[in-house]
Every structure is written in C-alpha cells, then in structure tokens.
Amino acid sequence: MKAVSALALVFSLLPTLACGQTDSKKSEYFNQNVADSNPLRNEQARELDAYIQKMAADQSRFRKLFQPDYSSADAFAKSAEAYRGAFCQSIGYPPPGKRPDLKASYQQIGEDSIGVYYRAMFPILPGVHSEGIFILPKSLKGKAPLIISMHGGGGSPEVALFNGGANYNDMVRGAVKRGYIVYAPQHLFRADEFPKDIRRQIDDRMRLIGTSITAVEIAKITYAIDELIKRPEVDASRIGMVGLSYGGYYALVTPAIDPRIKVAVSSCYFGVQEGRYEEEELSVPPDFRFMDRMTLFNDADLVALICPRALQIQAGATDRPSHREKGKQLAPRAKAYYEQLNLQDRFEHVIFEGGHEFNDASAWAFVEKHL
Fold it and tell me: Which residues form the signal peptide (predicted)?
C-alpha cells in the first residue's frame, strides 16, 4: 500500500514539476512589455516627418544640378541640359520599347470654310499610337507653322473643337483661322469600357516598368511631331503649343523636353500642384507625384527648360483661387530666368477676365508675336 501511495504522490506532483520546469525555461530569456517601446516608434515617425519637411525646403540639390549660364541665350540653353536630363530620368522619358517602323495615317473626316479635318494616327511605341485630329487650313499657301493644341482632364480633341469648343473657346480653330496647321492629340482620362480610375491604374503600372503616363503622353506629342515635320506643308522651324488645365500642364512639360517647340501657352494650370502640396502634400494627384516633383521640378523652375523660348502663362480672374493664386507667387521666379537674359518680352503671366477657360485674345497675340 505504501508503494502505491508513493507512486500516486509522484504522479500528482508531475504537473507541478512540469510547470516549474517551464517557468524555469521562461526565466532564462530577457523579456519586456512590447508596449514599452511604442514611444520609439512614435519618435521614428516624428523624425521622418521632420526629415521630409527639411528636404522639401532644401534648395542645395537644385543649385548643384542646375547652374545657369546667363552670358547668352545659347549658353543658358546649354547649361540647362543636365537639368533636362534629370527631368527626363525622373518621369521615365523616353518610354522603353522600340518605336514601330510603321507609317502615319491620315483619314479625312470632314471640311468646312476654314480647313480640312483628318483623323491622324502615329505609331509611337509597341502597339501604341498617338491619335488625334489634324487640320490643314484652307488658306494654306506653302509651308505654315504647326500648333499642338492640348485638351484638358476628362476632355478630348472633339470637346475642344466641336459645338463651340466649351471652355476651350477657340483654342483649336483659332489656330486654323490664323493659317496655322493644327494637331490636337488625345490623352487618356476616361474610357467607357474601363474603370473610372483607369488613368491612375495605367500610371501606376507604367511606373513598375520604368516610365509614367506623363512620359508616354509627352511622347505622344513629340513622336507625332517627328512625323508631322516630314509633311511638306509644315514649317519645322515654327512649332507652338497651347493647352488648357491638364493641357496647360503638358504645354509646360512638353516644351521643357522638346526644344523644337518655340512658343507655348499654358492656361489655368501653373502653380496648382505647388498650392496643393503646401496645403496637404498627398492631395497632389498621383500622376503628378513623379520623383523630385516638389524639390527639383516645380513649375517655376521647369520654366528654365523652356527659356529662352517664349512662354505665356495665363489664369482666369474668376477661376478657383487654387488655379491662380500660387501661380501669381511663382511667376516672378519664372520670369527671372528671362530677365537675366534681357528677354522679358518672351515671358508673360496673364490674369484675364474669365474663369477656367482658354483666353484666345492674349494667347494668339503672344503666339503671333513669337512664332
């Protein structure tokens, strides 16, 4: 009986012994309440926030990258080449992929008293076309200047051209009336068979392959110019570009890359993203968030890639303040590039009586003066 009792006692103590051994093993390792390190993670967030703000305000990288030579207009343009290269690298221009060895096509779609209208297609990348409306003025005699007329967000060449042109006014036909040849490209903002955010989706996917929608849409203009200047009617030495809103963005960044564009009018865009960035950094739309957008490539300094060529910036007095006020602050900085070359007449910042629309009067007077 004693042996049985002793055995029972041993078995009854086994759970206690096991727990004792487990507690002993736990005590071999250092331990701490995880929440005790929460202040360190908060400090990381504060540090990174402060770092971003400091780098956003630091101009030393820009000054190192771009050292303008004001000894002459040609010297200035040459001194901007490294800056232009950095901008191209930032947006992924030129886009990857071999350009197709295919001919451009022009299909006549109509005519009226001022011009003949064509649907133009230019193969620019594997399986990708630049598509838009091409117009030859009926007043054409010999060669004539070429105007790129760029629609805005959610728009199209058709919206800017037909039924009065909406808020584009005479941004397309105004050029034809003055004897200019016009190419009005189509850019991607909506597509009936695709999600509403198709532009953002395409841009996100493009960044994963080394480019961006900005770079591809610039190529839809510059590669089309390569083909258009082969036409006997086009004077390759006289190319201009006009654009409203998103088109105003492209009327700034496209001439910044392509020096063949001798005069540009950017309407209702200049300074918009800088204003958004000041209020809330991430309110800047995704397709404007390319690398170094707010440190090296803000709107005022991108003007240095257009100078000494002619540029007009315009904004409506009754447009939303976000499309005007920050631009007013940045304009003197942009103008300074021209002033130091004694070329003040090649830069205009115009606040016109009107809203979010293209101002024909100031735009075409400027284009005619400089083209």
Answer: 1-20
Please give the Cα distance from 119 to 157 (Å, whole number): 11
Q: Enumerate residues 6+ apart whose C-beta is below 8 A from 120.
A: 104, 105, 106, 107, 131, 132, 133, 134, 183, 224
- CA-closest candidate to residue 249, choices 225, 219, 272: 272
DSSP state of 190: -
Give the separation between CA 86 and CA 82, rounded to whole angstroms: 6
pLDDT tens column, 76-98: 999 999 999 999 999 999 999 99
**DSSP letter for each residue of 235-271:** EEEEEEEEEETHHHHHHHHHHHH-TTEEEEEEES-TT
CATH 3.40.630.30 fits 76-370, yes or no: no
Concatenated DSSP letters of 8-30: HHHHHHHHHHHHHHHHHHHTTS-
CB-based contact 353:361 (threshold 8 Å): no
* 208, two tokens: 């994963």
3-state class (DSSP) for residue 205 = helix
pTM of the model: 0.91
> Domain ranges in the chain?
76-370
Question: pLDDT (tens digit, 9 = 90+) per residue, 249-294?
Answer: 999 999 999 999 999 999 999 999 999 999 999 999 999 999 999 9
Contact 99, 124 (CB under 8 A): yes
Q: Cα–Cα distances in Å, from 66 out to 60, 79, 113? A: 10, 7, 49
